[in-house]
């Protein structure tokens, strides 16, 4: 999709925006899931089509107004989200993790207004806050120069737990990257929004709630983190930039973990897997996109 295409093909604006909502769950956090779904159903001035996707689980006990989609096995987070998006209808699609919620009843209305007010935007990620008052991880602000979490800006990766896109942009970029299974699919989604001629946007004035949990506590996370860095390069970057991207992140990990050789061993095993495993179909971004991203503050080599 060339710059401006999504805007020309955008659906007719309704008096109340219709939003497709996808909540993905394995059924292990029923209270959190209910809280998130209730926060969606409490949204004002929007029409909703909500589905709860059971990733290897048949959802039960859902509130009225939420449909269930049971997947027979855990297909991974991005593929599960994609499956949900196939069965809902709306001018926009909102993805909400089962341990996240949106505290403001006007969150979706405000996020849609942000997109409608600036047609250059193709994705919105809100500011993430731990509702218990715990310190909010800096990684939730997807910028190299973090600054204040309340500051808004274009971004080149997203925290995936609460994300809104126009439905035509979601379809144009091909949805979430299923081969990742878990980790870094939000970087690819942001890159492909940029490649579609739009901008991914971090909205510091919109808030989603999520508990502060360290994903790196799992060895599996370290392996997938490394493998998926390579997948990102192979699936999206021109050949000349692939070793630069992987090499820059290898240097960053060595600097971070040089005192933790077991972590580094796991990480580099993941890198090796990333170069040899099937990464799925590729969609190489154009050099014009790379130039736009660079001018906006972050070339896709780090």
Automatic annotation (TrEMBL):
It comes from the Bacteria. Keywords: Glycosyltransferase, Transferase. Gene3D superfamilies: Spore Coat Polysaccharide Biosynthesis Protein SpsA, Chain A. SUPFAM superfamilies: Nucleotide-diphospho-sugar transferases. GO terms for molecular function: glycosyltransferase activity. InterPro entries: Glyco_trans_2-like (IPR001173), Nucleotide-diphossugar_trans (IPR029044). Residues 30-136 form the Glycosyltransferase 2-like domain. Pathway: Cell wall biogenesis; cell wall polysaccharide biosynthesis. Belongs to the glycosyltransferase 2 family. This is Glycosyl transferase.
């Amino acid at each position: 999709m060339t710059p401006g295409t999504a805007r020309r093909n955008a659906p007719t604006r309704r008096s109340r925006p219709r939003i497709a909502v996808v909540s993905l769950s394995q059924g292990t956090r029923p209270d959190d899931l209910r809280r998130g779904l209730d926060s969606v159903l409490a949204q004002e001035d929007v029409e909703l089509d909500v589905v709860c996707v059971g990733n290897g689980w048949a959802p039960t006990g859902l509130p009225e107004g939420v449909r269930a989609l049971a997947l027979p096995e855990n297909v991974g987070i991005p593929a599960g989200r994609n499956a949900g998006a196939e069965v809902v209808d709306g001018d926009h699609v909102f993805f909400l993790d089962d341990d996240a919620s949106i505290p403001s009843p006007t969150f979706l209305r405000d996020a849609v207004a942000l997109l409608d007010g600036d047609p250059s935007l193709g994705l919105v990620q809100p500011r993430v806050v731990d509702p218990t008052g715990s310190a909010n991880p800096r990684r939730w602000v997807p910028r190299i120069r973090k600054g204040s979490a309340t500051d808004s800006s274009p971004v080149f990766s997203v925290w995936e737990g609460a994300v809104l896109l126009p439905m035509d942009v979601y379809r144009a970029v091909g949805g979430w990257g299923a081969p990742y299974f878990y980790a870094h699919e939000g970087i690819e989604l942001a890159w492909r929004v940029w490649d579609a001629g739009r901008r991914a946007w971090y909205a510091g004035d919109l808030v989603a709630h999520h508990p502060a949990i360290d994903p790196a506590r799992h060895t599996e996370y370290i392996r997938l983190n490394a493998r998926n860095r390579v997948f990102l390069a192979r699936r999206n970057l021109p050949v000349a930039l692939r070793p630069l991207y992987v090499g820059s992140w290898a240097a960053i990990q060595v600097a971070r973990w040089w005192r933790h050789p077991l972590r580094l061993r796991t990480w580099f095993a993941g890198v090796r897997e990333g170069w040899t495993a099937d990464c799925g179909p590729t969609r190489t971004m154009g050099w014009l996109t790379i130039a736009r991203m660079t001018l906006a503050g972050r070339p896709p080599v780090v």
